[in-house]
Design a protein that fits this description.
alpha+beta; six-stranded antiparallel sheet; globular; two-stranded antiparallel ribbon; 3 helices
């Protein structure tokens, strides 16, 4: 399966409004994450507009703790958003079996608060802060995702 130039490798998960896939970008020879509005929701114009608003808003945000957006597009009328692949997993996986050390919790909170501050300065409210939307890259840096 493909979206634009991106080759879908596997499904990573889904939420209330979209599914996320791990994909390969042959142009830059790297893995990316693609957030796709499912076909069953395409007829809902409000959800489609909300997805497109989210894509544009996130693409305009620049902060070291917000998952960067690389591309937005449509394939067969299905909108998608291409982001950095976060290989380090989500916070909910880290806290499932044991609590965080105080220093790690403070680091995560500080970075996420700084990201939210930037978003709020631009008039954006996250609306869904939870451990599954706090992600880690392969260098263990923390990022905020999913502004939907």
């Amino acid at each position: 399966m493909k979206f634009g130039r991106y080759q879908i490798k596997q499904r990573l998960g889904s939420g209330g409004m979209a599914s996320v896939y791990l994909a390969y970008d042959p142009r830059f020879e790297r893995e990316v994450a693609i957030k796709v509005l499912p076909p069953v929701l395409l007829a809902n114009s409000k959800l489609r507009q909300r997805f497109q608003r989210e894509a544009r808003a996130i693409a305009q945000l620049e902060h070291s703790a917000i998952v960067p957006v690389y591309d937005i597009g449509q394939e067969g009328g299905q909108p998608y958003l291409v982001m950095r692949s976060m290989r380090g997993g989500a916070l909910h996986e880290r806290i499932a079996y044991s609590p965080l050390a105080l220093e790690e919790a403070v680091n995560i909170t500080t970075r996420i608060a700084a990201a939210l501050s930037v978003a709020h300065q631009r008039g954006l409210i996250h609306r869904d802060i939870k451990p599954s939307n706090i992600l880690f890259d392969d260098h263990d840096e923390v990022y905020l995702a999913d502004f939907g």
